[in-house]
Design a protein that fits this description.
Shape: elongated
Number of strands: 0
Number of helices: 3
Structural class: mainly alpha
Largest sheet: none
Length: 104
């Protein structure tokens, strides 16, 4: 009887581990169903893997593309809510003599 209980416990632990790994794998999938370019447009500038959020996975995605030949990043968002603010900040930097990006 003791061996049966131990076997059931081991089976339950293994099943729980498999379920946990499945959840982790599903969570890493992009929200749109397919990461990378494929005609998708980013939700915001910096969202290069088109998963709808801007986080560390975007940086990893770019590095994968650059150094390991991974998928191409998706198109940048055009004229989103923060876009005029970024242009204004760059113009102010350019006019202050701290030119990081020369605007033409």
């Amino acid at each position: 009887m003791r061996l049966l209980k131990l076997s059931a416990l081991v089976a339950l632990i293994l099943f729980s581990g498999v379920c946990f790994l499945a959840l982790v794998a599903l969570r890493s999938l992009p929200a749109s169903g397919a990461g990378g370019a494929g005609g998708q447009v980013a939700s915001g500038n910096g969202d290069v893997n088109c998963d709808g959020t801007i986080n560390i996975t975007d940086a990893v995605f770019v590095l994968e593309h650059l150094f390991r030949g991974g998928q191409e990043p998706c198109a940048i968002a055009q004229a989103g809510p923060g876009f005029p603010e970024v242009v204004g900040q760059l113009e102010r930097l350019n006019g202050s003599g701290l030119s990081l990006f020369p605007l033409k």
